[in-house]
Amino acid sequence: MKLSLVATLYRSAEFVVEFHLRISQAAQQLVGDDYEIVFVNDGSPDSSLELAAQLSEVDYHVVVVDLSRNFGHHHAMMTGLRHARGERVFLIDSDLEEDPAWLLSFSEQMEREKVDVVYGVQKQRKGKYFERWTGRLFYKLFRFLSGLEVPDNIVVARLMSRRYVDALTQHDERELFMAGLWVITGFEQRAQFIIKRSRDETTYTLRKKVAQLVNSITAFSSAPLVGIFGVGCAIFLLSAIYTCFLVINWLFLGSPPSGYTSLMASIWLLGGLVIAFVGVVGIYLAKVYSEVKHRPNTIVRNIYRQTGGRSVE
After folding, report:
1. Where does residue 52 rank: exposed (0-12), middle (13-18), buried (19+ CB within 10 A)?
2. Are strands 154-161 and 62-67 parallel, antiparallel or unpaired?
3. Which fold has domain 3-205+298-311?
4. What's CA 33's distance to the chain center, in Å?
């Protein structure tokens, strides 16, 4: 099979039919009839699964992988890539913010530059000022703490070679951050500037964005732990210097240390630092706990194909 098209479904009912039509047109223009469309239903609470299953009954190109519950966007993407069989794999969101026609320009660039990956990057991040500002801050923090050169405003849409997908799916982490995995997998990758359509609503709330920031940094960087060690050493050094000053002041000047306010401020400062540092260590410990249990990243409930029946994994 020449081409696999992979998309996840979550609250996607209003987009599924149009997405299927547009991605099919792009695929047929590129490879004729030799392609598949892999939809991964990530526990969508709307009718996304029913609509995708109906498409699989009338279009033999469509395969629907139905997860047993919502596992998260990144886990769903990895599941779709593991089910893709094509020589090339085009990963894209199904909400039509990303244009299915990008497949053609991505393929042209891949052929021209002989690379393994062509991915989309927004010239300017979509959304309002707060969304753009937090996006820039996220990537700056991630690059600073992890050392990985993840481009600003990268999008999901990307065309990948078979060998790259095989290498990418070897990662068996429980805590996934796909943008980081895309970078550390290596191979020759090139960006293509695109314009992403903006919708008013988003399934990524502020709470989810903060959780994603914490997860991505702790998954790819030990810098917070190193920072804790550095701050601890600095506090110890300052405390030692101040203690020497107090002893010298008491021995030679005869004025004992005093000051309830400075004492309480020091206690609160050190107490807050200790609690914060224990929290950071706890996050890393929780990740170790999650990895050693080695639970499956996703559980597939059903796979829908044109036969009209259901095969269970």
Report:
1. buried
2. unpaired
3. Spore Coat Polysaccharide Biosynthesis Protein SpsA; Chain A (3.90.550)
4. 32
Residue spans per domain, the chain? 3-205+298-311, 223-293
Residue 193, SS3 per DSSP: strand
Q: Where are the alpha helices (DSSP H) in 147-259?
A: 162-168, 178-184, 206-220, 223-248
Torsion of CA 50, 51, 56, 58, to 10 degrees: 120
Per run of 10 residues, the mean pLDDT along the chain (length 313 residues) is 94 93 95 94 93 93 94 92 95 92 95 94 69 68 71 88 94 81 89 79 60 66 68 72 69 62 62 73 73 80 72 39
pTM over 0.90: no
Angle at 275 between CA 271 and CA 276, to 5 degrees: 115
Size of the chain in residues: 313
